[in-house]
Amino acid sequence: PTLSLVTIDRLPFARPDDPLLDARRERAGSSAFKTIDVPRAATLLAQGTGRLIRSINDRGVVVVFDRRLATARSYRWDLITALPPMRRTKDRNEVINYLREIRDGAT
Fold first, then answer.
1. Which residues pair with 8 in a beta bridge?
2. Which of 11, 25, 34, 82 would you call most buried, defined as having the most Cβ atoms within 10 angstroms of its Cβ?
3. What are the pLDDT digits (tens) for 33-76?
4. 39 neighbors 31 (Cβ within 8 angstroms)
5. DSSP output for 32-86
6. Would you kindly state where each structural domain of the chain is located, as residue ranges?
7. Which listed CATH number (1.10.3720.10, 3.40.50.300, 3.10.20.30, 3.40.50.2300) goes with 5-104?
């Protein structure tokens, strides 16, 4: 109940020089990013979100500072749909007000 904010600074894409993933990418060929990297990042992002949202009664904010979640046309929805259902916003004031409501017990 005391956790109300999780911040994620970067989308959790693997390093390009990871030997195991590099071998998998080599086997996947030109579709490697879509079939190897995006699903892995989606799973890790959902797990990071799961640190905050564990039940239907949990309240809080997950902030992803990586702009690619809002701008990447080829994979952003793959990442977003992997997350638990939740309201999304880009409005900082909305986030601050919501966190205040949580702190004050209004939600």
1. 64
2. 11
3. 999 999 999 999 999 998 887 777 888 999 999 999 999 999 99
4. no
5. HIIIIIHHHHHHHHHHHHTTT--STT---EEEE--THHHH-TTTHHHHHHTSPS-
6. 5-104
7. 3.40.50.300
